[in-house]
From TrEMBL:
Organism: Halorubrum coriense DSM 10284
Alphabetized InterPro entries for the sequence: ClpP/crotonase-like_dom_sf, Enoyl-CoA_hydra/iso
Name assigned to this protein: Enoyl-CoA hydratase
Family under the similarity heading: Belongs to the enoyl-CoA hydratase/isomerase family.
One of the Pfam families matching this protein, by short name: ECH_1
Length: 235
């Protein structure tokens, strides 16, 4: 079950199946993707906070559902579409990992813009122990985030990283008691600047194309905020 609510400038998306450590079934994946798709009306908040209910962030795919799959490739593509919706969301997505993140839970976190963990967080890609691997875009995003060497070690060994190790390897950017506070901190920025920064840092175009887009975005923001810039200069 996926729950959503909006608090001021932060939309909270909660994976709410604590009795199963928030493991995701096919229908849950569909609901989660829909939670990140831009609404047709009323715009979207500048920041979305992704969390899990209870003692875990997300245990990944529900193993009962995996065992019953008659089209594993379609299930992988469904998870990939969820991760893509998170990554491509117009909001800045902050993922708060509290407790266990395993397999697909790690892959959902990898798709977020900012990953933060509590001191009790643990992260692992245990698929290798089942003869599988993370196929919700993890093989693409993991080396981008951790670097190829760390990513190979993490995925091939199936080892569990605590919060401090996840911070050292770059899998999370901060270890904090309250991940929601990071979402609130980011939401204090100007919404159009947040959106522009996300678009530019997420751009996979060649360097020259990215730099041209960066200059154009800077000019647009400068024009939009010229009065505020002038006021601050006069202080």
């Amino acid at each position: 079950m996926i729950r959503t609510r909006t608090d001021a400038d932060v939309r909270v998306v909660t994976i709410d199946r604590p009795e199963a450590r928030n493991a995701l079934r096919p229908a849950d994946l569909t609901s989660l993707r829909e939670a990140f798709e831009p609404p047709e009306t009323d715009g979207h908040p500048p920041v979305t906070f992704l969390r899990g209910a209870g003692e875990a962030f997300c245990a990944g795919a529900d193993l009962d559902a995996v065992a019953a799959l008659d089209d594993p490739a379609a299930f992988a593509r469904r998870g990939q579409r969820v991760a893509a919706a998170i990554e491509e969301s117009p909001s800045v997505v902050v993922c708060g990992v509290d407790g266990a993140a395993r397999g697909g839970g790690v892959e959902l976190a990898l798709a977020a813009d900012v990953r933060v963990a509590t001191p009790r967080a643990t992260l692992a890609e245990p698929g290798v122990s089942l003869g599988l691997f993370g196929a919700w875009g993890g093989t693409v995003r993991l080396p981008r985030v951790m670097g190829e060497g760390e990513a190979l070690d993490f995925a091939l060994s199936g080892r569990v990283l605590d919060a401090a190790a996840a911070r050292r390897t770059g899998l999370v950017s901060r270890v904090v008691d309250d991940p929601r506070s990071v979402a609130d901190e980011i939401a204090a920025g100007e919404a159009d600047a947040l959106a522009a920064i996300k678009r530019r840092l997420r751009d996979r175009s060649d360097d020259e194309t990215q730099e041209a887009a960066e200059a154009a975005a800077f000019a647009d923001l400068h024009d939009a905020h010229a009065d505020e810039i002038a006021r601050r200069r006069e202080r």
